[in-house]
Specification:
The protein is of the alpha+beta class. It contains 11 helices and 14 strands. The chain has a 7-stranded antiparallel beta sheet with strand order 1-2-5-9-8-7-6, with helices on one face. Strands 10-11-12-13-14 form a 5-stranded antiparallel beta sheet, with helices on both faces. A hairpin with a 5-residue loop joins strand 1 and strand 2 (54-59). Helix 5 packs antiparallel against helix 9. The radius of gyration is 24 Å and the shape is elongated.
Length: 357
Amino acid sequence: MAEQLQFSEIRDLVGKRSDDPAVLAFHAAHKLPPPPVVMRTGLVYDVHVGKLGVSLDYGAELRTPQHWPPRRVAGRYVAYVTSATFKPTFPGLLANGLSPTLPLTTAKNKAIESTKNEAFYFNVMHRDDRYTLTYVYDRDDKTLLEIRLQLNELPEDHKALKRAAEIHAAKQPAHAPRVIPERTGSPETEPLPPALAALAKLIDDEGGSLGENIDLEMCEQIESGTVSAWTNNPDAERELRIFAQDGSGGVVAFWLVHADRPYEEQPIVFLGSEGEIGPIACDLADFLYLLAGGVGPYEAIEYGSTSGKPTFPKVAKLAATLAKREGRTPVDVLAAAADQYLDIHERIAALIRNESP
């Protein structure tokens, strides 16, 4: 297989959507899993091509007019092959016949452009009207670490990107602001809904955790006080009811947006300790299916995780007691939540008070 993989095959994929026929055909030909589902910006999802010394890098952000701005379809970001990374073990030549094993001295002498930081040397060895090829070396031992093939992108403040964003926004259908039901009374602590109480017991029976890949600590009851501190607004307690947290201080809460519905039928959101915000599930059943799939709220919002190792079948059985959704995956759960409840960002911004009441 090594002799069959050419630099041009990889080069021609960069900039294409993850659902492009050429990308899908490449994955199939090299027996790769489907391209990753991208659920957040600011992250790169890499796919290694077997032992061939190359990986495809997927993301939602490409700063070119035809790709900008990042956009969602049915809750998922449109993903692109944003770049490719070659190792010195790549079995072939690169652009213009460049070797994937160039010594640092040779690269410096032939580079179009050379820069460095505290850890690495960067030598641009090829650039055309579409791509740039950069060799990256370790500053300490001078070894070649990787070669990056990147689409030429515009600066973030470029007027062409601003114009592309304006055109995209103008094409979007208008959405009426969500009407939040008014709730009266002073919020107090409450017992956990039965399914959450059962989850808390299950976690306790398993040694206090759902595994090393899910950072989730159940509260003993639905708590008050944290949302007030988070927003500096006591009224927010009526709308956001906390039932779990992670080790860093982020919290998981019911967002009470549906009048006359029980907690089990309200969406669930994550409020991170560093300001990360995002919808997690459309209801409690989906939240349990997310956990059953090996993904926790913190991991989903902070790291864009969409898959994990399902290790607790009892959680899936618990989810089925609320709603039978056979084959429900973390991607299904997170995409549905993003499709319906992304306005949690705007709502939190509206609830936050900058001054003490």
